[in-house]
Structures are given as structure tokens and as C-alpha cells.
Amino acid sequence: MSEKKFFSVGRDTQKKDGYAKATGAEIFSSDVILPGMLYGRVLRSPHPHARIVSVDTSGAEAMGAVCITYDEVPKTVYNERQVSIPEKTYRDRTVLPDIVRHVGEGVMAVAAPTESLAEKALAAVKVEYELLPGLFDPEEALKEGAPALYPEVMLGDAVLPIKNNIACQRIIEEGDLAEGFAKADLIVEESFATGRVYHGQMETKGVVCKPEADGGITVWPTTQSIHNTRQLLGRIFSIPLSKVNVHRVTIGGAFGSSIQMNTPIAICVALARKAGKPVKLVLTREEDMYNHCKYPSRIKLKYGVTRDGMITAGQLETLVDAGAHNIQVYPLLGCMAGWFVSLYRMPALRFAGTGVYTNKTPACAMQGYGNPQVTFAVESLMDIIAEKLGMDPIELRMKNYVGMGQTFWGQGPTVRSIIRSCGVEEMLVKGREMIGWNERGRPEDKTGRYRRGIGVGRGFHTSGTGAPQPGEVIDYSTAMVKINEDGSADVSTALMCHGGGTLDAIAKIVGEELGIAVELVGVSPSDTATTGYDVCTHATRGIYCGGAAALRAATTARKSILEIAAKLLDVNPEALMIAPDPESGHGLIYLEGTDKRITVGEAAKTAQLKGWGTAIGVASHRQTNCPPCFVTNFIEVEVDTWTGEIRTTRAVAAVDAGTVMNPKLTAGQLEGGLCRGIALALLEDTDYDPETGRMTCNGGFTDYKMYTAKEMPMVDDLQVFFANTYEPSGPFGAKGVGEAANNATAGAVANAVQNAIGIRINDAPMTPEKVLKRLEEAGFNN
Amino acid sequence: MHNSRIITNEFDFCQPATLTELFGLLNEPGGDDRLIAGGTDILVMMKEGRHCPKRLVSTMKIDELDFIEIKDGVMRIGAATKLKKVAAACREIKSILALHEGVSSIGKLQILNMATIAGNICTASPAADSVPPLLTLGTTLTLKSGDGERQVALEDFILGPGKTAIGRDEIVYSVNIPLPAEGVGSSFRKMERVGADIAKINIAISIKRNGDVCESCKVAVGSCAPTALLIDEPGGILSGQLISDPESDLIRRAGVAVSEAIRPIDDIRSTAEYRRKVAKVLFMDVFQVAWDRAKGDAS
């Protein structure tokens, strides 16, 4: 832990976009309006699996609508994910399909001067389908003779035949598994499941595309990566990247839903290019819900342990229902292995994962990327083992966790690093006091209709996907920092803020390095033409990876302004320091113990007048590590044994994020993550009607339910704290937070339910209907 | 896939300012009018294409339909009175707290500020949260048309999902609630997936208590049949009985009778099996609360 005092890092500061968002002044992609702009709408398949025989657009065209069909779009086979290297990217889709593979898949699209006319034009389009059999169960899909969704797809530049609807498989082994299990005194194996959860981000996916006179395009999309969007559009439409400019537009939440270049973007570009006019395409909530979801999980988990609680071997098998497209099952399986391996030490291990195609909404990354699913299983099984050994669950975790100085490969086997900061023990020790762990009691001693129980869950996420060597996943960021002539500064980066304050943190890092207040650091509007590459704001990498690039750029700018000041003050630049003036926030450059001083603004202005140039820094940087940000949840639930309803009554959420950039925002992320984690355990899922292939919730919030503040513990019963750690490889000691926030929660809830009623529920969501059935089976009576 | 942002079907929209104007419109020949009050249900249905009326006639500007008055022991609520206002008025009257609880559980503030009492009734949703409390209170409706008015009991008015006994040229004018005498306590409870939701099952009870004797007990359950049901069995079991313990087997038996009387189905919100199992529990819960409330100010 560093004793370094920071000027603005670690303090609560006003969020830069706070006023604009609170007053409605902020511009999201759905707010972008251009002269002559048309409105796009997409005709969605009512069938889960069908060949499109013909599309008659004459009715729509007679209304003045511009129409595009499969025949009129580029046939580039693409994957909306661009984060993996091409050799590991499975490609199975085109801008519009000739075969639809899930209800809600785009069939054709129209653009018209009003959305109303576009909607009417859609209604006038006639499509003839040849219906194909649908597959909705991943185990059915694997069976011999099951209908095939794809004869072949592309892997990199090679054709990959698809057998038994298997999208991809990964087997990862280390150590001697048989020997590991042979050494065990106890072998425990259980199966777990989690639901097909919808991202539920506030803003649905949207895009505006303007075709330029020179054949280029300018795009304002909802995305977490403007550069990947640009590269993929350039490839699909064969436009040089210098003529594809993608703007960063504020995004109304993401949770992973826009890691990809979302499919409506390519459709909108095709419409705009045909129309020769700007087109806006914003998904309705129903379309959005049919566009992507979280990867559901079916996990079989087995551990061998010695009598004294040391793990000797572990094995995890998983079947992942990918839905209709393989967006990123391959890297997901690598990460699921990583999440499994990096929670607890195992001398021998085996991971076997299979992704399978079905005729459902394609699954994609969502907060945690397989981590909440794996950690739910692991943390549940840890408690089961502790119970069988008669050991305190916290003690079992303390004995086995992967911590300081140990090798860790959270992002999969190709991304290994050594842990240099770790707050696991601190969080377990402090958290158990705060929740009153020792008073939690045993389920068999509890009586009455309402029973309370306390559970613990650990977890972590990696801060980005950086590694010493190039791997399967791309990870680096670029930033530019320049000092303005009044002493303020601008930072330019292609990073996104999904609402968690990433760009505020970047401004803080820059301000801290330049010795100026964060209020004087502007975050420049950003587009692909004026920023260097940044892979994507995903994988909890914004601060740790993007911040590291910004820090390096700021260091260069700082060096430059100090050299200017040194010339003016006639001293050696290495001797100079900068600190913000407490009143104005402006940087004051000074030589300690003397009256030699000049403000950053004076130095910058003088340099301008004398023609010495601008103090500027640019850095394109890859982190060689992706350290774990650890989390620990202690959760108290109350089970109504007469109705099966479960309420979360108290919670302690802790994170080891290294140096915390903005405590209130970090606390907010922990609370938000906790809320989604509780809902993963108790509520969220999308069911499909196998007759129609439709979601039973119909894609709306009337029947797709999410938790709000109302289902969370009361303010005084929800405590958040930060472990006191410092990550040496992070900017000013920081690691990530975002996804970690919800990884530990579902396991903690399951363990709390077990502690309350003595019933272990492994298949989430634990709905009242399911819980009441289990209560009855266990002899409870209402 | 429907577009929940816009209504594609074209329609006319009228906003009469008086009842006379309203009846004039409804009497126009060949009309395919739908009344719209707060619009919180019908606009959704129109977006989903479940209703495609040629003309919407709004009651929103008709001040004559926005009132709450108490006269001769009856609370009369104007049809277009917003739920927020209804909930507030019922909060002040102890014997009809069930109605306050039911009405204020409908959606959240945005819905309460738009939706109206007659709208909640006329949508005829089996899950309407105002209906079970109104049924237990013996509510009648005053229907008006250009030709006159009639009274109809609420239980005779709602015929099935989306179906009521209203005539083509009629409107609900007022919802009339006979205020119970002293010694009556009521309670409402709703089971839902999250805190602002359509009920999996909802229940209301109104108990007349005399000391420790239950003189009468009226129970209504929603979301467990095509319409909310008034269930007589608990009254049969409990009327005239000495209630020594509101958690006694007698109450449990009345709860079982509720579970047996309902006709639930499996749907997106829950299962028939679960609804049956918890109907008994909900009955016991509301009984206990209403029983305490019926005790009077001494409690």
C-alpha cells in the first residue's frame, strides 16, 4: 500500500456529464438528427428457423420507402465481435441473412422520411418463407440427426464444417487429474444452471449513418468500441478506413450489449448508402431483447479435497447455449476456464466446454462474461464442501484462494500473470464482522415462517485482458494529452463511459499527473479519425488499461511543460514539481525551498508566444498484466417458508479495486452489480415457447422483470467498503471494478438461502414457485 | 414484431369537455369508439395491435367525472378520478384501507398519476388490483348514457377478460362504495414478481368484527380466474365464529377453502399450482391484518 497523497484521485468529484444527463441535455445516438435524415425499420422474422424464399418490396417502394434485402447487401461473412484475433474469430452472419435462425432476426429493412411511414412500409412487404425445424434445447441440438443450423461457418479465413450444431469446444487440462482426485478424502460433484438474462441496458441499440459525397460514411452508433465498429464497417462495405468515421456518442448503459459492432449498424449503413441520405435506426425494446442476451450456463462441477480442506483436483464441464450465432463462445470458454482456475488453487484440473447453436436470440458478453455463472457454481460448491468437512466456509476459502504472488490466468490459459495486490483476506475478515457472521446460526436451529440466513461469496474479475505476449484477445489503448495555453488540459481517447465514470477517472489520472484540478481537464469529443486505436471498453479494462495509456501520455506532456518552465525559471527540469493551487485548481510549477515558480498556464502561454510548441503527449500502450479485482459479498436473505419468496434483507459488498478513483461512483457500481447478481440468483431469465420460438415475455418489460431499488436492502442495511490495496502496475495503483461487482453475488445468495432453510438450490433463478416446491419436498408445510 | 414506440393504426381523437358532448359523440351512427381515460392500458394494446379503434374518445377533459364525495354513507368516486387521488382519499378511512392498498399497488407514480378508477375496472383485467377490494365492499357502478342512467353491481359488471356489461353508448359515471359501519376491517395483499408488477394473485378481505366474534367475512381473489372472484366459503366457515387466535386452524380451513374455490391457470407470471398453494397463505395474512384493524381504535 502506498502512502502517496493524491490531489484528486480517490476523492469524490462532480461527474463531468452529470448535469447534462440529469437535465436531458446529453446527446445519445437516438438524439442525433441530420438534415434530410430518413428513419429505418427492420422487418423481423416471426419464425425461429426459415429460408427466405422471396421478398416482395413493391408495396413498400410504392409508398416511397427505400428497401434493402439480402440480394442488395454485401455478402461479407462477419462476426460482430472484433476483440479476438482473426484466427480465433468464428464468422457466421451477413448484413441480412438468406436463412433466419431466430425469431426477431432481421429479414429486410426500409427507410422512409418518418418512422410511421417506415412502419407502414414494413407492413406492406411480403415475405415468403420455407419453414425449417427449430432447435431450442442445447442437449437436443447435440443429438445425432438433429436439424443443422449451419453446414459450415468461417474460422479466420478457413471454412469450418459444423457437426451436431457444435459452435466450438475447448478442453483445458493441467496436472494429473486422476492422481489429484485419488489424493482426495472427499469428492463432491454437483450440477448448476443460470438463466438466459437480458442486458436490460437503459438505451436500446441505435445508430445514425450519413453517407458522404466521397463514398465514405460517418456513423454515430451505440457502441463500446468506435474503432472496431469502424474496422468492421470498412471491411463489410469495402471502404478505406480513412473514409469511415465513427463518432463516440454517449451510451445509455451497456452491460456488454454493445461490445460488438451491433447488427443494426451494418443494416443502417446499407440503408443509408442505398438511399444516399442519412438514416437513423433505433431498436425498439422488443427488438433489442431479441438481439442479444447473457450466456446461460449449465455447469457440472467437481472438486476433490483433503480432510483438512485442501483442494487436490477440480473439474468443470459446461454446455453453453449460444443461440443462433457464435459471437464469442470460444473466448468465453477460455475465460470460464480462467474464472474457474483462478478462484482457488488446484494441483490438477480439467475444463471442458462446448458451445452449441440453437434457434434462440444469440448470446453475447454481459457483465462478467461467464464469471457470475462459474462463480455461482464454485462458491456454492465451496459451501457444500465446507459443510461436509464440518469447516467454516470462510476458513475453507482462506485456505485455498489464489492470492498474492501466485500465478493467475483469469482471462484464460494464454493470459498468465502474477498477483501483486490482494485484498481477499481483508475483505473476508472485515466483512464477516460487519454482517455478524458468527451469529448466523445453523439452519436446523431456525424456526418460524420467516427464516433468515447469511451467505458469503467471493469473486473477482480481471482488469482488462493485457498480457506480456500477444494472445488471442487484442488489448491496448491510445491517448493524447495536451496542455492548453491557459493551463487547462485536454485528453483524447477512444474509451467509452458506460455510466460508471470511466472518462471521469481518465480526467483524474491526467489531472493528477499534470498537477491540475480534474475540473481543468477536458475529455475531448472523440471519433475514429482523430484518436488512436482502443480495443473496446469492456473486460473491466477502462481505468486499468485505458487509464494507463492516458497516464503515459500525461507523463510526456508533463515532461514537456516542465522543460518549458525550466527554461523560463533557469533551473533543471528534473528539480521541478507541480501541485494544484488549492483555490483555482491551476497547476503551480515550483522549485522546492525557493521562490522560483510559474503556473502551468503561464508556461504554456509563453511557449506559444515564443513559438516553442505545445506540451503534448501521445501514448499507445498495452498493459502486460490483467490483475484481479477481487470482490466479496456477504448477503442476508429472508425466506418466507409459506410462499417461497426470498427477500434480500442485508448485504455487505466489498471490492479490492486498488486505488479507488471516485469512491461514490465505485460504491454505486458495487450496489448496481449486487442488484443484478441478486436478480441472476432469484429472478432473471428468458423462456422460449418451443412451439413458436418466441420468448414467453414477448420482449417487453411488462413480463421481463428486473430488480430496482425496491428489492434491494434498505440503505442502512447495505454496506460497501474498499480493500486497502495498491496495484503497482495500475495507474496510481488502480485496478478495475465494473464486472467484478456482480460476480460473487449469486453464490452468496444461494449460500444464504441454504443457511436460512437448509435447502441447496443450484438452478437459478430461484423463483418462489421453485423454492416452495423444494420447501414442500423438504417437509416444510404452509 | 410490434413497434412499442408508435401506433401505426390511424385513428381520430376526440376530447369532449362535458358529458353532453361525450354522449353526442357516442350516439353518432356507425361509430367504432373506444373510450380512453388514463390510457395506461389501451395505448399499450394499440401499440401491440391488439386494439385498432377508428376513434378514441377521451374522458380526460370532463371535469364532471373527476370527483370524490361521501353522502349518506356512500363514497362516490367519479369515473375519471386518478388513482393517486383515490388512493389518498381511501387512506383516510380505516374500514376501506384494503382499497387504498389495492389502488396504490397499481404500477408506480407515473401510472397512478395517469390511470383512473373506472379505467382499471373497465379494462376488465382479471388481475386489476382495485377490483378485489371493491368487490368485498359491495361496490356498485352508476352507468350513464344519453338516455339516462342505471346502477349495476360490480360483480355483475365484469364478465370476463376485457369484457364488461357496458352498452355501446354508455359510460361508467361513478363508482359507489357503501362505507362499512363500525367494526369493519379490511386488508389487501398482492403477490408479484417484483415491487411494481401485475399481480400473480391478489386478495382483499373485509371483516365485520364484534368483540372476538367474526360476524361476517367477504373475500375476493384476483388473477386466479377469468374475473376476480367473490368467494363465499370463508364467510360460511367464519361467520358467527369466536376467533380466539387469528392463526388458528379455523382460519387455515377458511384459507384452504379459498385455495379450492379459485380457478387459476399457468401463465407468464406464475403457475396454477403455485397460485393455489399461496392463496391460502394470502388469505391467512390478510385475515390477520383485517382482524386487527376491525378491532377499532382501541387496538
Describe the 3D structure:
Chain A is of the alpha+beta class and 782 residues long. Chain A has three domains: 32-132 and 202-253 and 258-289, Aldehyde oxidase/xanthine dehydrogenase, a/b hammerhead (Aldehyde Oxidoreductase, domain 3); 297-468 and 625-777, Aldehyde oxidase/xanthine dehydrogenase, molybdopterin binding domain (Aldehyde Oxidoreductase, domain 4, 2-Layer Sandwich), CATH 3.30.365.10; 476-621, Aldehyde Oxidoreductase, domain 4. Chain A has a seven-stranded mixed sheet with strand order 3-6-1-15-12-13-14, sandwiched between helices. A five-stranded mixed sheet of chain A has the order 10-18-17-16-11. In chain A, α6 crosses α7 (263-275) and α13 (502-514) packs parallel to α14 (542-569). Chain B folds into three domains: 12-56; 66-178, Uridine Diphospho-n-acetylenolpyruvylglucosamine Reductase, domain 3 (2-Layer Sandwich); 187-294, Enolase-like, domain 1, CATH 3.30.390.50. Chain B has eleven helices and 15 strands. In chain B, a hairpin with a 2-residue loop joins β8 (158-160) and β9. The mean pLDDT of chain B is 95. At the A-B interface, α3, α8 and α18 of A face α11 of B. Chain B: One of its GO terms (molecular function) is FAD binding. Chain B: Residues 6-182 form the FAD-binding PCMH-type domain. Chain B: Keywords: FAD, Flavoprotein. Chain B: It comes from Desulforhopalus singaporensis.
